[in-house]
Amino acid sequence: MALAVTINKKLNLVIPIYRDDGKILYVHSAPIMRETFERYFLVLSKTFAQIFTKGLGSMVGPRVAALLLKQVATELGEWEGELGVERGLLPEFRRLTNVIAPSAAGWGPIPFDEARRNGLIDDEDADEVGNAICFFMLASAILRKTSLKQMLESAAEFWGASITSSNSTEFLNSLPTLDATESSGEKATPSSIPS
Question: Are 153 and 9 in contact (CB under 8 A)?
Fold first, then answer.
């Protein structure tokens, strides 16, 4: 399965997942709220800083961000507990993330956790997506909009991504109409994704 990453001007993340059965899914994620950032600012900031001080950067960071977040949170004693990163922050990342999947009724959103539980996304893709979402959340929370845009545009080239301004609903509505005779596995090219 191949992944590509698209980050739009409204700071939403869209990750197409090309499944082995020919179907395509889209993972859409929005950034965390200010209150969430304020609660977890230290662990978010330290994790983002370590991505760059450890030489990982925007090329490797999206592949390991969630792993590094766990390491940093554990070192700070903020991984476990009711308000710890494991039970407080990561569920918020997943709450802000939906999978847009084809069905007999057309394209529809499914919460990320439900899509994973139901086997719509396998563990390998879920881990890749989780790390990319974590990197996106870190960058969105820490960087100023102008710096964020520059970083994401340069990272998009490496990731094979494109920039789009669609929110989740707009993106879902822009997808090709499905009917019973279509495979619903048609791969959208970056140029076919609205900007």
Answer: no
